[in-house]
Design brief:
14 helices, alpha+beta, 52% strand
Length: 836
């Protein structure tokens, strides 16, 4: 029973409210024209201009919430000078205004919420200073009291929503513009006395913000999520940007705060702070003026900005560029410089466009300070330093670089196939002053600025595998400039031999930066005792293709290899002692010229073989084995036994250092080919040698002992002494040709000529005068004979290789052959003389 009564009461109350609602809606609808007129009256009363709207509708229920919403179609606002500039301040397809019902019962129109859909706002300031937003200025400021301001219908707006509204701001007087599309922006507004707080949220497309179009714009063509907090103080004319955020596409975030101070008769001042975190520089450049972005972009370095704080301070007046200060730190990046690739590059620094207080703000007065940078140079050497760039129009820089690292650490970074670095420290300090754009002339490789610095190595050691060079106890100091490297000293041990080097490499930097530059060096090398064994200077044939070698080696090592392979060097050498295999010498001095194709030896003099050895020659390298050696040499008063021993018996076993004694003098020119260990290749000799042998002795020479099969069986052929011998040897492959030579010895007198061969082609004629039948005792006096006149009757023998042995036999037809050969030579000479 009670339930039915409650039900009836509820239905009656609902019917009552329903009827009241219908009555209310009917009353409001009946006042529809009066409300529309009231709105037009209030708007027209509070603006200095014209208000137009085509259609007017009333909605009592919107978004599931009862209330009163007035919809205005095709709304336009025109300022008083519209006929002059023909630009509507506001053109909107639809304006939806939500009214306070209680205020309506009080016969007041108070707008709480405004929604603008599909339109354009054009804020315009003309060159004469007139602004079309003056439409919102009161028509009669003198009568506008504080109470009127408080009760104004626009003052109490709580929310403004902009959907697809394009906003343009253009200041023709001060040359500024702003543009953006408010896609769905909600502005929450609250006020207390003279202060307004505004929160702006929603997505927009930012066209750009320019303080001077000639300088470019900020935030050009950016998709942005607005999260702005503003505070306006109308009494002090200050707009404060409280901590706010602009979130760009890909979640890049710009945090900002600051303030604008407005004045009555001059442009406002601003002091804005922007905070960036983990924003790619390419995005940061989009937030900068185009000209400044282009100036920074020409360095072609685009790292990720880990953090940056930007301050923009100054007047927004025409032709006045605000002061910009930036403190930044970048994440790891890459920079391809002309001197090599910098990887893992990190930078901390700051930027200003008002470096000098005596110059106007701008690109010419801009400066970037890289307070600290660290990187890996060519993926190997860790480098650090600082850099200052002046003047973004005609950029100049001051750059320092410092390297301090262990040799052994570089092995992991370099991964070189030719080097093994062991122990030691390397230091480098360099300074550069000059341009930063077009730093290097591509044709000459010359730098556009000044470069100075030094390199120092302490207690280093490394192995150069291709040439089997082991350097230890390495201490070096060198200085360099933009062209040359000056080596003050290199003290080291080369394969355990002490070595000191001084010299200069000319145009090293241009060589590293241009393929058109020839590299030249001069040096002096000194060693108290150089053991040249196991040292290889001859270039080895590169293994694999050029692409494979490039992939196998890092750029830094490739540069070192290129220097070694293409360096042309003039070297002054001085060795107190020198040894290579069995070759030993002292007081060695001379000049060398080394290139990747040859090694020239000039005026090389030394004490060797207990005499003097002078040498000029050249080793020509070819792409593969063998190399070619050509020499002109002279030996004075040398020990022939040590000469044979030093040159490994000239790669033959017939007569060795064990068989021969005497004092040797000679001069000649010889060419031969060499193996990679610099030993001669048999059969490649050519040239001649004029010689003189004094105090000669032949010991245990088996071929000459073969004469005893025929004669002189009781004479000593085991130890034979000779009178001075003088003749010429001509080298042709494995053969040595000799003219007829008189040999006077303690064993016998004979005349020898023909061909001696190291390749089983020996064919010598031997003439033994019969006067040798006379007995020769220990006191026999050696007399030198004339080769052209054989004394008396002779026994003619022929020594000829047969198989692996040299056999000596009687030669009955020897005289006939000699006379025939002499006659042919004479005829050839006569014919040659008859040719005109």
């Amino acid at each position: 029973m009670n339930f039915k009564r409650l039900k009836r009461i509820f239905l009656r109350v609902f019917a009552l409210f329903f009827v009241l609602g219908l009555i209310l809606m009917a009353a409001i609808y009946s006042y529809r024209d009066r409300i529309f007129d009231r709105i037009k009256h209030e708007v027209s009363h509070q603006i200095k201009g014209n208000f137009y709207a085509d259609n007017f509708n009333i909605v009592f229920w919107e978004g599931g919430v009862p209330g009163l919403t007035i919809t205005l179609e095709n709304v336009r606002l025109e300022d008083l000078k519209h006929d002059l500039h023909h630009v509507d301040f506001l053109t909107v397809r639809q304006v939806r205004v939500r009214l306070d019902l209680i205020d309506l019962f009080r016969r007041q129109v108070q707008i709480r919420h405004i929604r603008l859909v599909d339109g354009t706002v054009n804020a315009l300031k003309l060159k004469d200073g007139y602004a079309n937003w003056s439409i919102f200025e009161p028509k009669d400021p003198a009568k506008k009291t504080a109470q009127a301001r408080k009760k104004g219908f626009l003052v109490d707006i709580k929310q403004v929503r902009l959907e697809n509204i394009q906003v343009h701001f253009a200041d023709s007087l001060h040359h500024k513009w702003y543009g953006g599309l408010f896609k769905d922006i909600v502005c929450q507004i609250s006020h207390k006395k003279n202060q307004f707080k505004i929160g702006v949220r929603g997505p927009m497309h930012l066209d750009g913000l320019a303080f001077n179009p000639n300088k470019g714009s900020f935030g050009t063509n950016q998709e942005t999520e607005l999260k702005l907090n503003l505070r306006i103080d109308t009494a002090t004319r200050v707009l404060t940007l409280e901590p706010s955020r602009l979130v760009f596409e890909k979640k890049d975030t710009l945090r900002a705060h600051g303030r604008f101070q407005f004045f009555v008769k001059r442009p406002p001042n601003m002091n804005i702070y922007l905070h960036l975190n983990r924003l790619p520089l390419t995005k940061a450049l989009d937030l900068m003026p185009r000209q400044l972005a282009a100036s920074i972009g020409k360095f072609e370095y685009y790292p990720e900005i880990e953090s940056a704080v930007v301050r923009v301070n100054g007047s927004t007046g025409a032709g006045i560029e605000p002061q910009i200060d930036v403190r930044f730190a970048t994440g790891p990046g890459r920079f391809e410089s002309k001197l090599g690739l910098l990887t893992n590059l990190r930078v901390k620094g700051h930027f200003t466009n008002h470096a000098s207080g005596s110059l106007p703000t701008g690109n010419e007065n801009s400066r970037v300070f890289f307070d600290e940078y660290t990187a890996n140079w060519d993926d190997g050497l860790p480098v650090s330093g600082k850099m200052i760039i002046h003047n973004f129009i005609k950029s100049r820089a001051y750059i320092t670089a410092h390297i301090d690292t262990d040799f052994s650490r570089l092995n992991d970074n370099i991964n070189a196939s030719n080097f093994v670095l062991e122990n030691g420290k390397i230091y480098l300090d360099a300074q550069y002053r000059g341009g930063v754009v077009n730093v290097i002339d591509p044709k000459t490789g010359d730098l556009s600025g000044l470069l100075t610095g030094f390199v120092k190595v302490e207690n280093g050691s490394f192995r150069y595998l291709n040439r089997q060079l082991i350097f230890d106890q390495l201490n070096m100091k060198a200085s360099f400039n933009e062209k040359d490297l000056l080596i003050h000293h290199i003290n080291t041990r080369l394969n355990k031999s002490p070595l000191t080097v001084k010299g200069q490499i000319k145009r090293l930097i241009p060589f590293l930066t241009s393929s058109n530059v020839r590299l030249y060096a001069n040096a002096s090398i000194y060693s108290p005792n150089l053991n040249f064994n196991a040292i290889k200077i001859m270039p080895l044939k590169p293994k694999g293709s050029a692409l494979a070698r490039k992939q196998a080696r890092k750029q830094l090592i490739a540069k070192v290899d290129r220097i070694i392979d293409q360096l042309e060097t003039d070297i002054d050498v001085r060795f107190d002692q020198f040894q290579y295999r069995h070759f030993k010498a002292s007081q060695v001095s001379g000049k060398l010229n080394l290139t990747n194709k040859k090694m020239q030896i000039k005026s090389l003099a030394m004490n060797a073989f207990r005499g003097n050895f002078n040498f000029n020659g050249q080793i020509d390298y070819v792409q593969s084995n063998p190399a070619r050696l050509s020499v002109a040499c002279a030996l004075r008063n040398t020990n022939i036994q040590e000469l044979f021993w030093a040159f490994d018996d000239f790669q033959q076993q017939t007569i060795t250092h064990r068989n021969i004694r005497g004092l040797w003098n000679s001069e000649g020119k010889i060419e031969m080919k060499l193996r990679r260990d610099y030993t001669p290749i048999p059969g490649t000799f050519s040239g001649y040698l004029n010689f003189n042998l004094r105090n000669g002795e032949l010991i245990g020479f088996k071929p000459i002992k073969g004469i005893q099969k025929f004669i002189f069986k009781n004479r000593d052929f085991d130890h034979i002494k000779f009178a001075p011998l003088t003749s010429q040897f001509r080298f042709k492959g494995r053969e040595i040709e000799m003219d007829k030579m008189a040999i006077e010895s303690t064993a016998l007198t004979l005349f020898v000529g023909g061909t001696y061969s190291f390749g089983n082609q020996t064919d010598l004629f031997v003439q033994i005068p019969l006067r040798n039948l006379r007995k020769r005792d220990k006191d026999y006096e050696l007399v030198r004979y004339d080769e052209e006149h054989t004394p008396g009757w002779t026994l003619n023998l022929r020594a000829k290789d047969e198989g692996s042995e040299t056999k000596i036999r009687l030669d009955i037809g020897q005289r006939v052959r000699h006379r025939k050969a002499k006659r042919q030579l004479q005829e050839l000479s006569e014919k040659s003389s008859q040719i005109p």
